[in-house]
Amino acid sequence: MTTLKEVAKRAGVSVGTVSNVVTGTVPVSSARRERVLAAISELGYQPNHVARSLKLRRTKMLGMVISDITNPFFSQMVRGAEDAALRRNYLLLTFNTDDRAEREKEVISVLRSQRVDGILLVVASEQRRPSHILETIRRGIPVVCLDRLPPGVSVDSVTVDNTGAARDCVQHLLKLGHRKIGIIAGSLSLQTASEGLQGYKEALAEAGIDPRPEWILQGNFRIESGYRLGRQLLTSLDRPTALFISNNLMALGILKALAELDLRCPEDVALATFDELPLMEAFRPHLTAVAQPAYSFGYSGAELLIQRIESKTHAKTPVAIRLPTELKIKESTLGYRFSTRQDCACLLGNS
After folding, report:
1. pLDDT tens-digit profile of 268-323?
2. Looking at beta carbons, which pairs linking 175-179 to residues 24 or more positions away fall under 8 Å?
3. Residue 216: enclosing H or E segment and its boundaries?
């Protein structure tokens, strides 16, 4: 088995320099780094990560726990976290909970047993007593929550202004002349869904409109619930003229319901959603959406987590990073009022 001394001799550097390149703990000049990497490749050197982790009391591994890997929003989030981790020589281990709190507890227990240095977490729905998160932090393992915040836990986080973004989107529908606006929210046990609903209500209140309970429905962020609840709203005797949907997958369900009911969007029902779905650019109409920086969620979260790990600081006040959103106005709302191509082009140019 090749040793550090053999790599150092081949590269013409000290054993300490080879160790610094392998661990990434101390900067090494690019020229020396390239020589060491070339020697490692030529000799087939494999670092002993177990021994290194025992010595440094670090594994250079991060855990990432997300609620739904099938949602492109979370896939982009994972990509951002992975890029940030690799840049700092960390390995990212990713787990999917299928949005189940019990599965989340099991996964975090496994990550603790594997001695990961820190955890990125998108909490599952229906969290009542997130004692597993508190226990993880108590053990000295830093946790950064992404997008969603666990109830009753003070923790580092990366989020957006869900209330303000939802309010802006509903105000856009109001400016187009809509007064009958429904919403399909996510699980209201999550702050993302409850904050979005709050933004919806605030926009209606500012316009002097009382929200109608029968037009406020709660889904689960999956396609099926968007389809089922969409049909419920679209087949009612007094249906809304516009819908605000709390995520991209439920919006896909709505589009399926619209097609089956032979309703046109936006002429019969305008549609706006939280989250972009890039693949939807291949279909018509293009959806008006609140765009969230999914990649930045993961990248910023991983950077914050690594800062916590390497500085070994435990601030009394958690760091709360708030990322910007952007309302992108497209065809699924424009046709309600702006029917000419010239008007549409003007609005699209401002999106």
Report:
1. 999 999 988 777 677 778 999 999 999 999 999 999 999 999 986 566 789 999 99
2. 176/242, 176/270, 176/333, 176/334, 176/336, 176/337, 176/338, 177/336, 177/337, 178/241, 178/242, 178/270, 178/336, 179/207, 179/209, 179/241
3. strand 216-218
- DSSP class of residue 154? -
Q: Are 182 and 243 in contact (CB under 8 A)?
A: yes
Q: Residues 100, 247: one domain?
A: no
Query: 335 and 210 in one domain?
Result: yes
Residue carrying structure tokens 């709390």: 246
Tally the domains of the chain: 3
Instruction: Report DSSP letters for 324-338, one per residue.
Output: --EEE--HHHHTTT-
Note the pLDDT of residue 252. 92
Range of the domain at 241: 162-286+327-349
**What DSSP character marks residue 139?**
T
Low-confidence residues of the chain: pLDDT under 70: 23-25, 47-58, 280, 312-315, 335-351
Q: Where are the beta strands (DSSP E) in 35-141?
A: 61-66, 91-96, 118-121
Position 223 scores a pLDDT of 94
What's the pLDDT score for residue 19?
79
Pairing, β 61-66 against β 91-96: parallel
pLDDT tens by residue, 130-147? 899 999 999 999 999 999
Contacts of 16-25 with C-beta under 8 Å, sequence gap 24+, read 22/47, 22/52, 23/52, 23/56, 23/60, 23/89, 24/60, 24/88, 24/89, 25/56
CATH of residue 339's domain is 3.40.50.2300
